[in-house]
Predict the structure.
Amino acid sequence: MGLNRLAIGRRYDPGPPFDVSRQKIREFAAAIGDDDPMYGDVELARAAGHRDVPAPPTFGSVPSLLMGQGPRTDPEVGLDFGRVVHGEQRIELTRPIYAGDVLGGMITIADIREAGSNEVIEILCVLSDEGGEEVCRVTSLLVSRGTATGSRNV
Amino acid sequence: MSEPVTRSFAEVEAGASLGELAFDVSRADLIRYAGASLDFNPIHWSERAAERAGLPDVIAHGMLTMALAARLATNWARDPGAVRSYSVRFSAVVPVPAHRSARITVSGSVVTKLDNDRVAVELTVTSDERQVLKHVYAVLQLAQ
């Protein structure tokens, strides 16, 4: 019980870059029921000033979850998924994610803190394009229910 | 075919309504979202897993609710690429029964006008008369 405070600041291997295809954007848009024609029509997207088909605003959560398995499964962090609920989510975008982007990730445990009888772990995923420019910053706050019984150090 | 025109910053007033949207979310929608988002947590498709986690039923992905709510903002802005920041707190789960859809309702308004043709908007997201997301704010990039 109790998450390991020494894991704060720890970085994890994000795995290979995430290729954002037009197909994946269409698939994600369909899964959220969004029938905006711009997701399927690059000419329409360009007419609106985009360089390619834009992804829906929360699309960054897909590479973020895929790349962010490290902190979620690291036994030294000690998350028990039977106790975890999603507390908060923040997404910051320098620009929309576009089809054609190849996004590299940087995964960090930004914080672990107590909140009443619970603990909160903040996982940060920074997504950058092939030129190294930051595109999207995804912050996931996971609540570990009932584990705030004194922190554990490994 | 008419060209899309992003909503213009000049035409927006603080306090303006973004309108309202309602979504009916079924188990099939959860399966589809699981596949597209790569979030295969079984509490979103298995009643047994949901029960083991102490939940009343299979629940919708928080990120699906967040994505649906954003549609009000992008529809209003008339640009799916308008969002520059978006944050939510998950305040209640959305149970999705096996044979009946859960309805999620989203409304919103412009909180303030910012620099560089951006606006901050706040959304209200409810299901079954409960606020399922709280502190729902987005910053949108509009046209001039």
User: Anything to note?
Assistant: Chain B has a mean pLDDT of 95. The CA atoms of residues 11 and 32 of chain B lie 37 Å apart. DSSP finds three helices and five strands in chain B.
